Structure formats: structure tokens, C-alpha cells
Amino acid sequence: MDFFDDIDVYGDLTAVITEDSEHISYKALLLAADALKKQLEGRCLVFSVCENSLESVIGYIGFLRAKAVPVLISDNTNLELFNGLLETYRPKYIWLPQYKAEMMENCSLVYRHGNYVLLKTSYDIDYLLHDDLALLLTTSGSTGSPKLVRLSYKNITSNADSIAEYLGITQADRPITTLPMSYTYGLSMINSHFLRGCPIILTNKTLMSKVFWELLKANNATTFGGVPYTYEMLKKLRFFRMELPSLKVLTQAGGKLSRTLSEEFAIFCQQKGIRFFVMYGQAEASPRMSYLPCEYAIEKAGSIGIAIPGGTFWLEDDIGHVIKNNDTVGELVYKGENVCMGYALNYADLCKGDENEGILKTGDMAKRDDDGFYYIVGRKKRFLKLFGNRVNLDEVEQLLKYAGYDCACAGEDDNLKIFVTSKENHEKIKCYISEQISINHAGFTIRYIETIPRSESGKALYYALK
Amino acid sequence: MTNKEEYDQIFIDCFSVEKSQLNAEFVYRCIHEWDSVGHMGMIAAIEEKFDIMMETDDIIDFDSYTKGMVILAKYGIAF
């Protein structure tokens, strides 16, 4: 079964618990989703602006059931980037909160549900959507790149199956959202829990809000997930001293949690009878590729575990040969039904079929121990993660070049270092980048450098940046 | 520096704002920089500067510039 067409069977069970503690049954959710579905004229592209709210979920499920293809976009995306995406992809409809609708030009109101509206755009072009195409996601952390990940129906349903299986999700589970729905990790939590008929507590509130903890307690939430930064925050919030008896499962993904923190949480969870899962994935894999079975959380702390049910991992050397020996570093390669069809750079790419054939070269460097557990040791590609969001360093450089600065980017996760040849405007640069890519400025350090070290061919010598 | 000046400086540094912006209207999420990431950075800076360890409820309740001073009073920091 899948998590959008076949969940009628859950009927009167609760599907969604809202911030106001309203309980919405699967039946009611699907009624609303199908009412929205009726408004759409055939298979088409829809921009769906996501919050962790009932309306947002109704849209998502409704579009999937209508075989319309939603592009899930964070409600944090700034208007300029959003308009750029609109021009690049020319969707037929936009599903978004009412208060944002007022900013949209040349659109007509088609339908309203709760505080969301469906707008019809004025783009009048017919382009082909590939039959297998289900969903489009931005690669996390939007640097204004119009690049979207193309996911098929098989991709999202098979990944939801695998996740539900290894987490052992049952109807007794009640996840509470901690991550945006437009973010592949947050979305996969929703998919896998709908699949098993769970109630999902939807909230936009963060761990920093009292309301979040009240909702968690009042609704006996059993499960939530977090990126490494979430876990740092939890520790800071004295999570180890909190009394949360309903909590049964914690998951972690979206970047590498330090070994110490991973171990600390694993030990705490064991004491409290909470199952703690460290996991690994990418938007390109819908997203989950591996998990560390919770019984190994302490013994194998620091590992991303083993491939998910239905998936396989191997390591390749520089020339693409499979590495047979353990404890040898190579590029991590994954194979499974959840590997995306490919990317899209504009609407013309939406007719393309599967370009990956189930194989994803992750760009992460890893090794495997004698027991078959994998460990990430570095990255091949030029990106890093800021508070769980993937940020491409070359794209940040491009943004600053447009703004008139000569620069080079380096750094590590949660600390992107921008080396600029300008002695002034450092605060301004920080704010500009923070605003452009919607990530807190605490993630950036600006350093002055007299000249950017370059090779003869003009390529920046990143290793020389310190 | 007085406690008040230290307190203000932390806000100015953490959120890239001017001193004139610091008033009763300066609350959590009023600017893009004061999100959950910014909040934890600010709390860490305060704990370090005043050498205190705040309770969970206080970290969460600390949702405005003005409220912060009331909360810090509990830890013996007078303004």
C-alpha cells in the first residue's frame, strides 16, 4: 500500500492533531484532500508552499492523489527566490497561505480551505510531465539555485516502506513535527507515519517554544527527529533532565552528529527506554539510505549504520572500482528504489525519465568496519551543512560575486567561512548572505584576505584558505 | 561595563542590531536573526558572560529583551 492513495482504510483514526489540539481523522483529511483535487484540471505542476499545518498537508496529499506534481517550497523562501522559481518552472497552480497570496501577481483565486488558497497562475504553456514523476524538492538550504530533485512515485513509496519497517512504526506512534515539511527529512517522517495510520502532531513551533513542549506533553507524542543542531539545542535545554514519559523514539539525520554527542544521547535514551536512531540520507534518495539499529547506538556511536531495507551500500575508489577491504576510505555509493530520477533545472526537464537507474554516488567519503557498519569521514563535493541545511559553497560565492565581492568560501559544518578581499562591509555581507539563503547569520564567519589564492588556471586554492 | 551594558552588547553582537532597537518591542522572531539558532547563541553568550547556568524554562521563557532582564534577576544579576 502507499501513504496517499490507500490510507482510506484508516477511516476514523486520527491522522492529524493541530496546534489547537483539534483531531482530524484520516477520513476527514482525505475528504478535504479530494475536494482540493477536484479543483485541478488534470495532471499539472503545482507550487505548494509548506508550513507544518493541516492545510499544507491537505494540499500535499490532495496533489499526490490528483496525480498533480507538487513542488514543495519552504514558507521561509524569500519572494525574489520564489518568483525566480515561478519563472523557471511555470506551474499551473500555487497552494499557499492566504497572507502570502496577496503578494502574488497575475493569479486568480480558485479555491480556499482554512487559511490556504489555491491560485491559478497565468502561465499558459503546455509541457510534459513524465508519467513516473511524483514530487519535486529543492535540495535543502536554498541558495537560490533553481535545481530541483525529481522523485518518482516508486521513490517516495518505497522509502516510506523502508523507514516504517526499520523504525518499527505502529499505530501507537505519535510523532510531533520538529522539521519543516518542505525539508526531505521532515517530509519522510510524515510519509512513513501516514503509511502506518499514525496521528501526526503538526506544529510550526520550534524546540525553543514553550508551546512545543506543551503540545508534546498534552498529546503524548512518542517520536521526533532532529538534525545535529537540534541535538545540541536539546542538550543546552537540559533535555537530559526533562520528564517526558510518552517519548519512545528519537531519530537523527541531516548531517553528522559528533561522536560524543551521539554517545551521550544513546546512553541517555537507553536509560529512559527510548529507541535512538542515527540515520543518513540525501534529498536525492527520498531521502533515507541508512540507519544505525538502535541496539547498536552506543557500541557503534559515530556510525551511520547499515543500508535501509531494500538498499545496498558499497565504496568506490578514485577510478570507480569497488573497494573490497574494510577500513578503507572511498566514495559512498548507494543503490535502491528510492534513488531519484535525476535533477531538473527548468520546466523542460520535467519530461525526463530516470537518469540514475537506482544508483546514487553520494559525494560523501566513508569507510566500513569489520561488522559492516559505515562511517562518514569527509566530503567529495563542495558543500557543507548549516544547521541541517545543505549549502553549496560555489553558489554562495556566486551570490556574493553578483553583489560585487571577490570571495572564496570554505569552513566546516555549522561554520561557513567567507574570505573576502574587502576590508569593509563584513557585517553587511553576513546579513546579505544570511537573508539570501534564509539561514541564521551565526552560521557564517567573514574573514579578510588580501588576495584569493588561485592556481594558474584561475581556480581558487581552497586548501590555502585558513 | 555595567551589567546593562554587557547585556546590551550581547544583543548587539548576536543579532546585528543597533542599541536604539533594544526596547520592549524587541522580542523573539521580531527579526530574522532572532530565530532558534540565534536564540541559543544569545543564551550561550549570556551564560558565559555572567557565568550562570539557566534552567530550561528560563531559556524558553526568555522571549524578549525586557523579559530577559527579569529572568536574569533570578540568577542574581541586577540591572
How does this structure look, described?
The complex is a heterodimer of chains A (466) and B (79). Chain A has two domains: 362 residues, Rossmann fold (3-Layer(aba) Sandwich), CATH 3.40.50; 82 residues, ANL, C-terminal domain (GMP Synthetase, Chain A, domain 3, 2-Layer Sandwich), CATH 3.30.300.30. Chain A is globular, with a radius of gyration of 22 Å. Chain A is 26% helix and 27% strand. In chain A, the strands form six sheets. Chain A has an eight-stranded mixed beta sheet with strand order 6-7-5-3-4-8-9-18, sandwiched between helices. Chain A has a five-stranded mixed beta sheet with strand order 11-12-13-14-15, sandwiched between helices. The mean pLDDT of chain A is 94. The N and C termini of chain A lie far apart (52 Å). With 466 residues, chain A is of the alpha/beta class. Chain B is an all-alpha fold and 79 residues long. Chain B has one domain: ACP-like (Non-ribosomal Peptide Synthetase Peptidyl Carrier Protein, Chain A, Orthogonal Bundle). Chain B contains four helices and no strands. In chain B, helix 1 packs antiparallel against helix 2. Chain B is globular and about 30 Å long. The chains are: A alpha/beta (466), B mainly alpha (79). The interface between A and B is medium-sized, with 25 and 20 residues.
